[in-house]
Amino acid sequence: MSDSAPKLERYVPKPGEPALPPQLAEFQNKTPEEVLAELNRMPFFMNSLPGDGNDDSDINFDALEALKAMNYEGDPTEMLTNFKNQGNEQFKLRNYKDARKFYEDGLQIDAEAYDPEKDNKAACELELKNYRKCINDCKKSLKIDSKNAKAYYRMGKAFFLLKKYDEANGSISFGLLIDKDNKSLLQLLKSVNTKEEEILADEMKKLAIEKEKQRKIDLLEACLDIRMIENINSKEKNEFFELSKIHLEEKDVVDSQLIMPCLVLYPTIDELDFVAEVGELSTGQDIIDQLTQRPQEFYLENPQYMCLDPNNNGKKLHIYMETKEGGLVKINKKWTINQIFQNETPKIPMLDHSLRIYLAPKDDTEWIKKWDKNECLEKRVL
């Protein structure tokens, strides 16, 4: 007797019989679109569910519910297998959300016997970037099977993506105790080690930068002490005026010229200027010359700056600076900045690690009369 399956005969209608088999007779004379529409009314062929805008009043809802209930037919083992198989199919298609739903349905059937790792639920959570859920699933799986290398791998991968490298290393180490040649675990270990090396290198770089910054600050403070320059900070200190803005003309050469920022105030017109670098060997006149050497267009657009007396190199200007006691003192234009700071009486401090000068016309002294020593001191951090 032959084991081969019997050959199916083609349907040939006899005289008086329909041109199509009886079960397909109702589709005679219908277009392909109409046939598909009819099939979609049958629960086993549906590609859309009721409620999505394709409702028909005569759809067999009982049959549809029966179709859904098929997932729950049989004993718990059969149901678990059913959900697992459907979940695995969706997982292969990379439909991770759908796959996870089937695995979760299986979990509801028998939570004790359900292994989320073997059924790929942990893998779904990993793909969906639900790293903490993945870790929890792996832990549940390891309670069932403590030698599950995949669980250690996925838990390690989740920890790695959460940037918890110590925990990732721990998971990988346990996994390699079970399977020392596991390629996935070894590759993940390499990734973790590489990341840790990058972090260490970055930390060392930052530490070196901070160390060098502190070294410069210590050096500059020493430079100010040697020159007997005292600094006083304002309560509303601008972050630009930091010690780090001061530098030596020759790097690390303590007795080379000290370069500092300079804030220039014009009290009679309520304006100010900022000079980024002024050397300690510069004079007050040098600063004035630098400020007055502006294009003629500047003075046409800003006539208030004509008080600088640009046509006469500031000969009609006086320079004033604040004293340590909060008063004002007129400065000789020929003095160098170094001489000004080393003058003992009155003592003139550096303010906010910068040189601060006031420029005003000789014939306008009204602002000086209004100067309040106590108000000046109130603005400082003593």
Automatic annotation (TrEMBL):
Provide ranges: composition bias, Basic and acidic residues.
1-12
Mind telling me which InterPro entries this protein's record contains? Csn1/TTC4_wheel (IPR044059), TPR-like_helical_dom_sf (IPR011990), TPR_rpt (IPR019734)
Question: Does Coiled coil appear among the keywords?
Answer: no
Q: Which parts of this chain are annotated as the region Disordered?
A: 1-23
Key words, A-Z: Repeat, TPR repeat
Q: Which domain of life is it from?
A: Eukaryota
Q: Which GO terms describe its biological process?
A: protein folding
This protein's GO cellular component annotations are: cytosol; nucleus
Q: Where are the TPR repeats?
A: 149-182
What molecular function terms (GO) are annotated for this protein?
Answer: Hsp70 protein binding; Hsp90 protein binding
The UniProt entry, under Pfam families, shows:
Wheel
Report the sequence similarity comment from the record: Belongs to the TTC4 family.
| Protein's recorded name | TPR-like protein
